[in-house]
Amino acid sequence: MTTTTASAQPGERTVGKSSPGTARGPRRRPGRIRRIGLPYLLLLPALLLELLVHLVPMVIGIVMSFKELTQFYIRDWTTAPWTGLDNFTMSVDFDAPVGEALLHSFLVTCAFTVLSVGLCWLIGTAAAICMQDAFRGRGLLRAIFLVPYALPVYAAVITWAFMFQHDNGLVNHVLHDQLGLTDKPSFWLIGDNSFVALLVVSVWKGWPFAFLIVMAGLQNIPKELYEAAALDGAGVWQQIRRITLPSLRPVNQVLVLVLFLWTFNDFNTPFVLFGKAAPEAADLISIHIYQSSFVTWNFGAGSAMSVLLLLFLLLVTGVYLFVTSRATRTPRTPRKHEERRTADV
């Protein structure tokens, strides 16, 4: 076999060829491996804390839901006898007192969540739209609007509990003594009015979060869209309907889901406002599970109710994410394009 070697001309680059036996692939740099593993190393403490704080108690709670864990087995809960699905069956038996009380609490929680989330989103969005344009004192108003969100939950709810007092509360003083809107001072922390009081406190401390998120989303909407719409003769409501709300759709999808999960699982507000025994009109499912577990000392039934609540929230979240993602990915055909297609047919 004859091998011909071409001499390199001036200005040309000589390329050396190695034999097949000595061919080597590209070497991986150690720095690249370090860069890839660094994010996982930084996330490791958070993952360990998540495992210890949430996942391990959740697994223990699921195990407890299959046991007859009453006050007689609290000292050593591992010796409690297994009951299988008896706790779940008792919880969903709506003809029995336990199931009927759980159903009532679930319906009250659903009504409370829908009203609270809707009002929080409405007030927060309206306030954010009003604060969108620059004017004197806007920064101060924004800071004032965020005060309920910055206050500790216990301090805020305790303050509202004093304001809702029957004899010397500020609410009755304003509504009855000053404005004369009621015939006599109302009981806000007991009876049917307790639902209204709980809703007011929840909306008061929840709408600033919606205001903050929507206000951040409004910063990404170009002002040229509003200027062009104004030149075309669009009014304020038409601009909000055609520009603001469609542009805020991704933000609102996340905001509504977060508000729903926070409100449905809210325990601090009713517990601080009413104590261990909430009125029947404001018996949220979080308080009901607390009473079933720590008041009647039936941790097995309370754990079963918690598992059912978890499954319900997972189902609602999955359906919500599926519907919203499908609506986002589905392209909309313009009307003019549809008219052309119809004319061609």
UniProtKB/TrEMBL annotation:
Keywords assigned: Cell membrane, Membrane, Transmembrane, Transmembrane helix, Transport
Entry GO terms, CC: plasma membrane
Localisation per UniProt entry: Cell membrane
UniProt cross-references to CDD domains, sorted A to Z: TM_PBP2
Record flagged with keyword Lyase: no
Alphabetical list of Gene3D superfamilies matching this protein: MetI-like
Transmembrane segments: 37-66, 106-131, 143-163, 195-218, 247-264, 299-323
Keyword Transport annotated: yes
Region called Disordered, residue ranges: 1-30
InterPro entries recorded: ABC_transporter_permease (IPR051393), MetI-like (IPR000515), MetI-like_sf (IPR035906)
Highest taxon in the source lineage: Bacteria
Its membrane topology: Multi-pass membrane protein
A Gene Ontology biological process term: transmembrane transport
ABC transmembrane type-1 domain boundaries: 106-320
Family the UniProt entry places it in: Belongs to the binding-protein-dependent transport system permease family.
Protein name from the UniProt record: Sugar ABC transporter permease
Organism, scientific name: Streptomyces coelicoflavus
